[in-house]
Give the backbone structure.
Amino acid sequence: MQAILSWQLLFAALVTGSIYVLVALGLNLVYGTMRLLNVAHGDMVMIGAYVSYWLFTLSGLSPLLSMLIAAALTAALGALAYVGLFRRLLANRQLVQRLEGNSLLLFFGISIVIQNLASLAFDSTPRAYQYLDRVVAIGNLGITENRLAALIVTGILSLVIVLFLRFHIYGLAIKALMQHREAATVVGIDVERVQILSFCIGFGVAGLAGALLSMMEQITPFMGFPFTIAAFVVVILGGLGNLLGGMAAGLLLGILETYGVALTSPSLRSVLIYGVFILVLLVRPQGLLGGKRVVR
């Protein structure tokens, strides 16, 4: 019981939750603006992790710097995916009627391709590196520097995104598109530009989360799927299209997972996540923090 009530466990829960916040934010952004179900989202986390791994291994570049390169690369992949695959899907009135189902199949295919290309390029052997792994004592709390750095970076980035959505003209345009697509078009918002921006931010944030994750965990070509599932759970918890609710839900899931594993067993991690997912869908389908459905 003393271990359960320790600051150590709370800190671990906050770090896990903060990573979920970033991953789910990108997923929620793409779904909220375009209703696209991105089941390849976790693969952007994997790509970001490999970018930081190789840059650190080959050149010694700090992950706290290479995370910017990882974010830029995955953002570019998002722009490429939008222009090459989803622009036509969103513009076609007949295809848009089956938008969610079509996007699910497209992203599923993208996910399989990315995973297998990564497996061919890097093989499936787990990889890891040591960076900022020194333990820092703060009172009775012992934390590694890399986890502290990850928590600080995710906190700053989350604040920047909140401010961007609240005060920047493009942030306000994204929120308007989430609330009502047709009305946003009527008032002169450049929907095309906002959509590609949402893709770039969503994919870029996932890549940055992967770079931070690479400092703390082993990486493999197939590591992305659990993060895709966790992101969907967070989006359901926070409410579809509710970005602030998703941030709160990410921290909540991190706490539920960390304390649940501590009380049971690490082998039950997936059971806990899926259990929360199913329970919320049964009890409150609009999400624990979600309000009314967004009008499209």
About this structure: The beta strands are 135-138, 141-144. The longest strand covers residues 135-138.
